[in-house]
Amino acid sequence: MAVTIRDVAREAQVSVATVSRALSSPDLVRPATRERVLTAAAQLGYQPNRAARGLITGRTGNMGIVVPDLNNPFFTGVLKGVQARARQADYAVFVADSDEDRATEEQLVRAMAKQVDGVIVCSPGIDDTQLYEAAGITSLVMLNRRLRGVPAALMNSASGMRQVVDHLVALGHRKLVYLNGPRTSWSNRERRRGLRLATQQHGVELIELGPFPPRYEGGLQACDLALATKSTAIMAYNDIMALGVLARLRDRGIGVPGDVSVTGFDDLMFAELCSPPLTTVAMPLATAGSLAVDLLLDGLNSDSAEVRHVDLDTQLIVRATTSPPPA
Fold first, then answer.
1. Cβ of 153: how many Cβ atoms within 10 Å?
2. Hey, is 6 helix, strand or coil?
3. Angle of CA points 102, 108, 112, to nearest 5°
4. In the CATH hierarchy, which fold is given to the domain comprising 5-48?
5. In this model, does residue 20 exceed pLDDT 90?
């Protein structure tokens, strides 16, 4: 038979009400009593009834996350961090995929708000006004989008692109082409910001193409246009696009990195496994997901008006798709 709250109360020699307070509002219980209740619950293997606890605390014990594309391993990497941290906090995670559609994204956030304690929006494409409206109906945290007044876990894309440019310039490249991701993407804007600062600092030519879909097909589409610019290095918005670029170059008999260098962004698992292995920028995906959960829990459990925007470092990973340009 399942262990009940009465069993825990009997084991800890306290009332049922004390067990309830110790588990839902521990600050209201003396430390020694709380420890006795927690020990009894652990020994008996007691699992609180989530619905019953919700009636007491006003919480559902659920949180939501909306991502643009579950087929993209970038977002599954983030989800691993979200789910691991949520599990530690005894929260269930509801996941929804907007399929890169802004209207769907807004609808999903509104629908989730009725069923969860808060929502994490990953790389949101909806505009600032819509995000502020969402923040008015539920606790909201953003991942890879900065907006005043809304907590955010941010991965430093601008720094990552500066590292890419520094690397390519050190190899001798003087004409670079960048394949833009989605027009509404905050991450893409940040990458462009880092690119422009770095290319201006080094005095090298930067050509921008796109936007392109942030998928394999986007890289296939962009590759011929990039080659037409006569640039010696192609920088893709993300690793998946870079794989499309590599495939098209291979079809055309163009050597990498002998004829042209290629870089990606994100350091997904197959960046190291493809041939040749891809030079890219490592993003702290799981760490960002875990941080987003912490920011959401902080907002739920604190009366502080402080809004935190936390930047996480990115790191260039040099592999075999970059080398000095052809003579």
1. 29
2. helix
3. 150
4. 434 Repressor (Amino-terminal Domain) (1.10.260)
5. no
CA distances from 81 to 5, 69, 113, 118 (A): 31, 17, 21, 17
- Please count the CA atoms within 13 angstroms of the CA of 131 that sit on its side-chain side: 22
Spatial contact of 150 and 120, defined as CB atoms under 8 Å apart = no
Tokens found for residue 79: 């989800």
Q: Which residues contact 222 (CB under 8 A, 6 or more apart)?
A: 179, 209, 210, 212, 236, 241, 244, 245
Task: Tell me, yes or no, if the pTM score tops 0.85.
Answer: no
**Residues contacting 159, CB < 8 A, separation 6+:** 194, 313, 314
Q: Is residue 58 very low, low, confident or very high in pLDDT (cuts 50, 70, 90)? A: low
Say what percent of the chain tops pLDDT 70. 95
Dihedral over alpha carbons 119, 121, 126, 132 (to 10 degrees): 50
Give the pair of three-digit tokens for residue 181.
């991701």
Q: Using an 8 Å Cβ cutoff, are 278 and 236 in contact?
A: no
Can the peptide bond before residue 325 be classed as cis, meaning omega within 30 degrees of 0? Answer: no
Q: Is the N-terminal amide bond of 48 cis, ω within 30° of 0?
A: no
**Domain extents for the chain?**
5-48, 61-155+285-313, 157-283
Residue predicted with more confidence, 7 or 280: 280
pLDDT tens digits for 39-55? 988 888 887 666 555 54
Among residues 159, 119, 171, the alpha carbon closest in space to that of 142 is found at 119
How many angstroms separate the CA atoms of 248 and 254, rounded? 9
In this structure, whether the domain defined by 61-155+285-313 belongs to CATH 3.40.50.2300 is answered with yes
DSSP string, 232-277: SEEEESSHHHHHHHHHHHHHTT--TTTT-EEE-SB--HHHHHSSSP
